[in-house]
Amino acid sequence: MKSRFGAIPAADISADQAIPPAEIAVAPTTLEEASQALRIATEQRMKVLIWGGGNHQGYGHRVHPDMVLITTSLNRVEVWEPEDLTIVAGAGARISQVEEMLAEKGQTTLLPHRSPTATIGGALAAGLSSYKRFRYGPSRDRVLETKVVTGDGRIVRSGGRVVKNVTGYDIPRLMVGALGRLGLIGSVCLKLIPTPASAVTVTVDDPAAALAALYRPLAVLSTRSGHSAFLWGTQAEVESQASRLGGEVQNGHAWPPRRLRQVAWSLRLPPSRLSEGLGRLPNSWDYVAQQGVGIAECATDQVEIGAATELRGWAESVGGALVLTNGPETLYERIDPWGTPPAGLDYQRKLVAGFDPYRVLNSGRLPGGV
Amino acid sequence: MAATLTGSNTKLRDDLIRLLGAERVMDSTLERHLYAKDAGVYVGNPTVVVMIETTEEVAQVVRAARRHGVPVVARGAGTGLSAGAVPEVGGVVLVTTRMNRIEEIDTENRTAWVGPGVINLDLSAATTPFGMHFAPDPSSQSACTVGGNIACNSGGPHCLSEGSTVNHVLALEVVTDTGDVMIVGSGAPDPIGLDLRGILVGSEGTLGIVTRALVKLTPNPPDVRTMAVAFPTIEDAAATVSGIIAAGLIPAALEMMDQLMMQAIENWLHAGLPVEAGALLLAEVTGVTEAVAAEAEIITSIAHGNNALSVQVAASPEEREILWKSRKSAFGAVAQAAPDYYLHDTVVPRTRLVEAMRQVYEIGERYEIIMMNVFHAGDGNLHPLMAFDASEPGRLDKVKAAADELVELCVEKGGVLSGEHGIGIEKRHLMPLLFTEMDLDAQARVKEAFDAEGVFNPGKVLPEGSRCFDFGRPVPEGAWV
Question: What is the pTM for the complete model shown?
Answer without folding.
Answer: 0.95
